[in-house]
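pasting for ref. prot 1 ->
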Amino acid sequence: MNKESANSLTMRIVIGMIAGILLGLMFQAILPKDGDLIIPLGFVDFYVKGFFIDGLFEIGGQIFITSLKMLVVPLVFVSLVCGTCSLTDTSKIGSIGGRAISLYLLTTAIAISIAILAGILIAPGTGVNMAADITFSASEAPTLTEVIIGMFPSNPFDAFAKGNMLQVIVFALLFGIAVALAGDAGERIAKTFDDLNEIIMRLVIILMNLAPYGVFCLMTTLFSELDPSAFANLAVYFFTVLGVLLLHALVTYPVILKLLTGLNPVTFIKKMRTTAMFAFSTASSNATIPSTLNTTTKKLGVGNSIASFTVPMGATINMDGTAIMQGVATVFIAQVFNVDLTITDFLMVIVTATLASIGTAGVPGVGLIMLAMVLAQVGLPVEGIGLIIGVDRLLDMVRTAVNVTGDSMVTVIVGKAEGELNTDVFNSTDDTSDDRIDFHHLKDK
């Protein structure tokens, strides 16, 4: 391995991730289990648990996540305003949105179909003994009508404060169109927003340079608390979901990309590595938006007028990874409760989960809410969700990586269709977005 690749952001994140996992597992090994302590209880409570896990690493990881989320609203708003006011024909917004939403729904339907098929063939719920005291209650999901009405903000500043991405997107689109129609005043404002966009992207690069340390803290905290027994009891379910997630990311997306654009899917997957790792470590599509936008525009060559629209929309409504979990989980829970689902039931699961990906957009705990809707639709007990919660945290990280890969794939396809894709940048082997920041010489060029 040469020095350049060893120092790349991707490699540094991998090192931070592996180091965090190993340290977390070491902490878990020395934490008290059933009163059998490897080292004195006082030392464990104060130093290992109190100072390191709940203190130093928890603080470091949460500061990293919070810093990423801090950038999401201003980045999306400024980028989308810049992209919208730069469009020569604002009617293209409808074309861009229509293509993006259609592709997001298509990939979600494909994802849950593959998941259901895998669940039927592998049968992860066969022989599982259901606990008698399983309980789970999911929040009620809003209707599609309520979501559409809620997309339009009565107070845009309240939408900014609450991070309501659909409302931020709508307001940014309207604001960008107004800027484009405002003549000389609009041109002056557009230049200001271009400058703001450049500054915010610099902030993104700063955080990306600090990512290995944030990922290290997040992995240490997570793997010090994972329950190995939960994975042992649900191993077949866990690896079924994991296998379908990897299949969808590494086979379905590349095939769709190749068929619709003719671009090299291997190049796409390689350039998605860093962003996928961001998504895995944060388990949040919204928190990964800065990295996703940076990758789609700087590495994949998509115009900002496209990426600034499709990426935030995808982070909000694209639920491929969640759909895969729902498909396998539905079959798993049906098998545990010895309920035979018909072909009609399976078709209903596909339709419900696909439409629910938009109908529950932006709702906290959206994955479990959607699963509760699906289970209720086919007459399965919602309490069965309690069976899979123990292993859902790690799967959530993987499906977030799948979701952002899907967001980027759709962005490339829409960019190609709209003539806003620089194929030279896409095919380039130079990682121009992997900027290194010298914090000792900030003004050096």
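and prot 2 ->
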Amino acid sequence: MTTSTNEYPTKAYGAADTSGHIAPMDITRRGLRDDDVLIDISHCGICHSDLHTARNDWGRTSYPVVPGHEIVGTVAALGNGVTRHKIGDRVAIGCMVDACMQCSHCEQGLEQYCKQGMVGTYGGTDRHDGSKTHGGYSTRIACRDEFVLKVPEALSSEHAAPLLCAGITTYSPLRTWKIGPGSKVAVAGLGGLGHMGVKFAVAMGAEVTVLSRSEDKRADAEALGAHDFLLTTDKPSMKAKSGTFDMVLNTIPVRHDVTPYLHLLRIDGVQVLVGMIDMMPEMHSGLLLGRKVLTGSGIGGLAETQEMLDLCAKKNIVPEIEMIPMQDVNTAYERMEASDVKYRFVIDIGNSDF
């Protein structure tokens, strides 16, 4: 594989230490390999993972780090072997930029579960030169062409961005467990992931209930298309719904007790964790003897993510967003922690100070 010697100096924002403060920095994007695409970034969504990585909450951040894995932009240059894209195309990158593409998981279109480990869009290690990957809080990015997705014409760039993580993270389990007409789905948590879970489940024809500790979320749930709302602090109401749901899509991003949600499942029902990346509190295994499934799900593979983007364009399924310039990202982090956003921040790279 040949590599162009023309590296690309790039303006970015990132964190230099565990304070997690995001500030301007200069990085260099690699010269293009034969299968690379260079993208001028126009928009980048903000994910809770960005904040956790910037602050080293998971104990594995290597600084400096440039977050951002909900990336949309236009093709600026191509490696010599690229035929899937052309200059000027509107494209997107999600949470991964490479994988082995040869293992049994990759061959099934499950690149996110690559046996050799998929390469994260930021904080990952490049498979070829060992360099560290940097994300979308920047003006451009180079990426292997198979991992560059096409943005349908009917999707705006700003609305497409959050679909690359919040969208596919909720779409994938709903599709995997074949949610459709007649299914009963409960969505726990109504944030960036949860609101997309509601929209997708409704679009798939399911009867959707939002689970929340806050009565204030009832009107929002209805506005998003949910058919019912269940206050989880209302024990009689929770008990009345015992054994009701085919799926609980659990998008709650902090450590919490999953037991009450298992009670809500029917036989062979599944609770899928997509938000909590933490040690799980103890639970009584007797609950699982009722043939209830507790599992987790990551993002989707490349084909599934493209399928989701195409579906969103066809059915006008888009996230609720608030646009900000790059220089306001630290305030956005604070507001995100306080659940003060409905429901996803998107950075307008083109109108930001670099």
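The mean pLDDT is 94.
The longest strand covers residues 36-45.
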